[in-house]
Write a structure and sequence with these properties.
This protein is an alpha+beta fold. The protein contains 11 helices and 26 strands. It is about 20% helix and about 25% strand. Strands 1-6-5-4-7-3-2-8-9 form a 9-stranded mixed sheet. α2 runs parallel beside α7 (about 245-260), α3 packs antiparallel against α4 (about 95-105) and α7 packs across α9.
């Protein structure tokens, strides 16, 4: 049976106020990546409405399903068509074209996306309670219910389902834990003239004649009536009805909600594909690398998820309170150096790199405290995709982000200090800097600092016994090459092979004897000016000395905090391709050094760039 009463569509008149055009700010906000926004906003609302009386072990469940409904079963469609035609008459140019496009979508039947949540409270409140969740979602523009810890704060997210509809029309049906029912629809077009020739506002309502929800369950059509506590959102005329309509939604769920799914707070079903704590990895494997191009770090987060022995910390952090940090260091591959940030709700807010950390890592930060979540929520823009210190009152945001960064950095550096005794990872020097925009120095994206005065790099996977040395200045060449950080500094350190406990030179390991026939002669180290130039998969190391000198070449890598480590390379050749033999990072053969450059070719293997220092080891008596 079709209930015409609940299918009544009416647009309020403007009362002589401003005309409202079709370029609605809320709709335009989500128009770009509308499927990802749809998943984020709807699931966020469901998590906000979790029925806590069921216990922490019961997850919120959200189901996405595509249905087909006849035009005649959606009794408001004739009124909607008349309103669209009126908009075509009312507006001109590009504004009119928007409605001619909508008008072409009317047909005998329509695909509709139904999104249902379970283990939730439903949308509590009545039509007169302007602070209720029902009014906030269905009736309020530019506001939210304001509940502490809620995922949303601006109320703009309600526009995301409207963008997903060809007709800018969405139906809401709920059953609450208080036993109440409610049904109403929203259609957002533009000002136009109604049947009484009155100019209307842009947003109309489907329900009773007085713009109110239908609250008698027997007046709600059976296919829209909830039987369990929770809410249904039906998007009329869903924009993506391809055979793989679920693909983009599944990817968006995986990327944005893997923390909440991993923690058991959320389960999602998209077109019959179940996504929960037990199926996360299997679902990810349905997609190849090209499919996940828009989410390049997703596979690394799943590596963290599946690791049996990640680093886990839960501590009180100043200003924000109880926080959790989970991260993985893998020396066998290059991890992207990203931390995913989320509040207790488990929706990913942003990804950021942490400066002054050399080791490769992937991790997850989650704030657990009520006050901390409230503060972080206040720093989020309408998209809920960043923490921006300037949005918080006073300096609280800046201090909070500083403490979060400090805590994460300390934990990563502790792991780095442990691992540097055995292995350290080398990647490009530039990767020590965060990859995000540094234009906002107050938020987590402002992590960039100038490292040219203290070059740091990540040595390759080598066994080492590091010894700290004073930091040395370095430069970056105009041709894109990188200076090793020596800057032409002259300095000597005496080495006597006959002394059983000599003062160690800069750099790791002892200097081998000058020659088999000269075990008693002392040797000294003199830094060389060096420049590392990329040539395909190899690198050309150009060496000069401020004065003419002859000796053996010593090359070391510069690790975290200026620590020198043995050079780990596949091969060392002269410019003619002859292999050069090294012992303890020192060449067996001697070379002449001076203002004329000496060139050697290094092959580093997997990684592409190193910070290097070079010395000439020379015999005191020979100079």
């Amino acid at each position: 049976m079709i209930h015409k009463k609940c299918m009544f569509l009416k647009f309020p008149n403007s009362g002589g106020g401003s005309y409202e055009g079709p370029n609605d700010a809320g709709l335009e906000h989500f128009r770009g990546s509308w499927e990802s926004s749809l998943a984020r906003e709807i699931i966020q609302n469901a998590l906000d409405a979790k029925n806590n009386d069921l216990g922490d072990d019961i997850p919120v469940q959200v189901e996405f399903s595509l249905e087909n409904h006849l035009h005649e079963n959606l009794g408001f469609m004739e009124s909607l068509k008349s309103s669209v035609e009126s908009c075509i008459e009312f507006w001109t140019g590009e504004n009119r074209k928007k409605f001619t496009d909508i008008n072409q979508s009317f047909d005998e039947n329509y695909y509709c996306l139904r999104v249902s949540d379970f283990n939730t409270t439903g949308l509590l409140g009545n039509d007169d309670d302007i602070n209720s969740r029902w009014v906030s979602l269905v009736k309020t523009v530019g506001g939210s219910d304001g509940g502490e810890g809620r995922g949303g704060s601006f109320g703009i997210g309600k526009s995301a389902p409207l963008v997903a509809s060809h007709f800018r029309t969405v139906l809401y049906s709920t059953k609450t834990t208080a036993g109440d029912y409610a049904f109403q629809g929203v259609s957002r077009l533009a000002s136009h003239r109604d049947s009484n020739n009155e100019v209307t506002r842009s947003q109309g309502f489907i329900g009773s004649n007085g713009f109110k929800a239908i609250r008698e369950s027997n007046q709600i059509p059976e296919f829209l009536r909830r039987t369990e506590n929770g809410t249904d959102i039906m998007i009329v005329g869903y924009r993506n009805v391809e055979t793989n309509w679920s693909k983009n939604l599944i990817k968006a769920v995986l990327y944005n909600f893997w923390p909440s799914i991993m923690s058991g707070m959320l389960e999602v079903d998209v077109g019959g594909q179940s996504i929960n704590i037990n199926t996360l990895s299997d679902v990810l494997n349905l997609f190849d690398e090209d499919d996940l191009e828009e989410y390049p770090n997703l596979s690394y987060y799943f590596k963290l998820l599946n690791d049996q022995n990640p680093e886990n910390f839960e501590e009180d952090v100043p200003v924000v309170g109880r926080c959790q940090l989970r991260f993985l260091v893998d020396k066998k591959e290059t991890l992207p150096k990203k931390i995913a940030f989320c509040r207790e709700q488990g929706m990913l807010i942003q990804e950021e790199s942490i400066r002054q950390v050399a080791i490769p890592y992937i991790g997850l930060f989650m704030c657990k405290s009520k006050e901390g979540n409230k503060l972080l929520r206040s720093m989020e823009p309408p998209q809920h995709n960043a923490w921006e210190a300037g949005r918080a009152e006073g300096n609280s945001g800046r201090i909070a982000l500083k403490e979060i960064r400090r805590w994460i950095r300390e934990k990563l550096q502790e792991k780095e200090s442990e691992d540097i005794q055995d292995t350290v990872n080398l990647t490009e020097l530039s990767e020590l800097l965060p990859e995000a925009d540094a234009s906002d120095s107050n938020d987590l994206r402002g992590e960039i600092e100038d490292l040219t005065s203290n070059p740091i790099a990540e040595p390759a996977f080598v066994k080492s016994q590091p010894r700290p040395v004073p930091p040395l200045a370095g430069n970056s060449g105009d041709d894109g090459s990188e200076d090793d950080g020596i800057g032409g500094r002259d300095g000597d350190g005496t080495i006597d092979p006959t002394n059983p406990s000599p003062t160690p030179p800069p750099g790791p390991g002892p200097i081998p004897p000058v020659g088999p026939d000269d075990p008693g002669r002392s040797s000294r180290l003199k830094p060389l000016r060096s420049r590392l130039l990329s040539i395909g998969n190899e690198f050309r190391l150009v060496l000069r000395s401020s004065s003419a000198i002859e000796g053996r070449l010593k090359i070391v890598e510069v690790g975290a905090n200026g620590i020198e480590l043995p050079l780990n390379i596949e091969s060392v050749k002269d410019k003619d391709g002859n292999i050069l033999k090294l012992q303890n990072s020192v060449s067996v053969d001697e070379f002449p050094f001076g203002e004329d450059p000496l060139e050697i070719v290094l092959s580093f293997g997997v990684f592409s760039r190193k910070a290097i220092r070079a010395y000439v080891v020379y015999n005191l008596e020979a100079q």
